Amino acid sequence: MHGKAIVITGALGALGKVVATEALARGARVAGIDHAASTLAATADHMELGGVDLTDTAQATAAIDKAAAHFGRLDGLINIAGGFTFEAVGDGDPATWQRMYAMNVMTALNTSRAAIPHLTKSGAGRIINIGALGALQAASGMGPYAASKAGVHRLTESLAAELKGKVTVNAVLPSIIDTAANRAAMPQADISKWVTPKELAQVILFLASDAASAVTGALLPVNGRV
């Protein structure tokens, strides 16, 4: 990945930080975009754009364009930004469904649309989305989240078909990711079976690499050690 210019959304989160670190270690140039604030000083190889609301089309476009201008090109987009909620359908709030759709589908849509003109110039453009294994068959309380992640799956497939021969578009579908937040939420769970952020990062960065040039439209389950 040496010299490739990669944008990572949700770059200040638990998974985003690991993916960014791994990408930089492989020689990529990385622009991280996040809703959280950032004080990192930009260098030739690394920059962070904080305070960006990716559910807003104009803000997403401005951030992607700024990253592309900084590096002079854009070779990959890794859409990690998103959200999770656990809420039953019967006594839940319909606004939760709208919020999950905005955080998971619209963020990926807005950044992908903004990145397409840059990625098609790359000659090896890549988009990698984060779906969810739980969206293949939703459990109780997972309706809003699973429905939104199913939307990410369909976005991935549709965009892969639309951009075939120009940009590859794939998604990884993790089970439970081993993060501090998930450990706190599920203290009795067997975390030895969860997928670690570093393991997931390896799959994501494979899809962003030249080695994955023949892979597009794939929804790859990342199950951990089940």
UniProtKB/TrEMBL annotation:
Family annotation (InterPro entries): NAD(P)-bd_dom_sf (IPR036291), Sc_DH/Rdtase_CS (IPR020904), SDR_fam (IPR002347)
Domain of life of the native organism: Bacteria
Molecular function as annotated in GO: 3-oxoacyl-[acyl-carrier-protein] reductase (NADPH) activity
Keyword tags: Oxidoreductase
Coiled-coil zones: none
EC number from the UniProt entry: 1.1.1.100
Signal peptide: none
Keyword Transcription regulation: no
Enzyme class per UniProt: oxidoreductase
PANTHER family, per database record: BLL7886 PROTEIN (PTHR42760:SF135), SHORT-CHAIN DEHYDROGENASES/REDUCTASES FAMILY MEMBER (PTHR42760)
Family membership: Belongs to the short-chain dehydrogenases/reductases (SDR) family.
Protein name according to UniProt: 3-oxoacyl-ACP reductase FabG
Annotated organism of origin: Bradyrhizobium brasilense
UniProt gene name: fabG
